[in-house]
Design goal:
With 243 residues, the chain is of the alpha/beta class. It is built from 8 helices and 13 strands.
């Protein structure tokens, strides 16, 4: 069971989402606008926020920014909802720290699967890291697996939890090519959606592309290599010495 906050201004949708998640054992609190959504997150400290994009007060982008700037909530998982399958919405949502994205209308089954995947990932992040290879270098970046901190050119660089997990997945197998579909399984945890789901659709594979673009923008073009028609691989990477 996890604490989940739903921020959605359409009462029918908010109640349907909340009822589905409560039926699965989660503790769900609901807010109907941007300011009250931020305040609710500050108060209940959720593991996951299901966040509508278009909200009264201020929009879902601003809610995401404010929640993840709150001390202790930096790593909260965010599932964004939108009525538009617009690539700009997707890119901006991921850029401000959303982990995943659902376009309305969506099935209750897909909502449940995405929530379960995000909560599994949050659980893995909270687990103690393996002692071996606690530092990795990818291109000019150094990743500390124990603290989840990243430095590039001697400077600290902020990565969202999903960006960090994606880069680690590629860096742990230097040079190995990984398909977008496999990354959706390994990083996003979409293994339980089934072959007929939208997990391999153009919209959802763009999720991977947008996160790769964010990594290149923050750390340089050499951190991730595109293998056209196949997927992605890390740039030159290796375990970093602890000295």
């Amino acid at each position: 069971m996890a604490q989940v906050v739903v921020v959605e201004d359409e009462p029918v949708i908010a109640e349907a989402v909340a009822a589905r998640l409560r039926a699965e054992g989660h503790d769900v609190a609901v807010a109907g606008d941007g300011p009250s959504g931020v305040e609710l997150c500050r108060r209940v400290r959720p593991a996951l926020v299901v966040l509508d994009l278009m909200l009264p007060g201020f929009d879902g982008y601003e809610v995401c920014r404010r929640v993840q700037a709150e001390p202790g909530l930096e790593g909260v998982a965010v599932l964004m909802l939108t009525a538009r399958a617009d690539e700009t919405d997707l890119v901006v949502g991921l850029r401000v720290g959303a982990d995943d994205y659902l376009t309305k209308p969506f099935s209750p089954r897909e909502l449940s699967a995405r929530v379960a995947a995000l909560l599994r990932r949050a659980g893995r992040r909270a687990a103690p890291p393996a002692p071996a290879a606690s530092l990795l270098r990818v291109g000019g970046a150094e990743l500390d697996l124990a603290t989840r901190l990243v430095r590039c050119g001697g400077e600290a660089v902020h990565l969202t939890p999903t960006e960090f997990d994606l880069l680690v997945r590629l860096a742990e197998h230097p040079g190995a090519v990984v398909s977008r579909e496999q990354l959706l399984t390994d990083v996003w945890g979409w293994r339980d959606l089934g072959s007929s789901s939208t997990a391999t659709s153009t919209t959802t594979t763009r999720t991977v592309d947008s996160h790769v673009a964010a990594l290149r923008r923050k750390l340089g073009d050499d951190v991730v290599r595109t293998v056209h028609g196949v997927g992605y691989a890390s740039g030159a990477s290796a375990p970093a010495s602890d000295s």
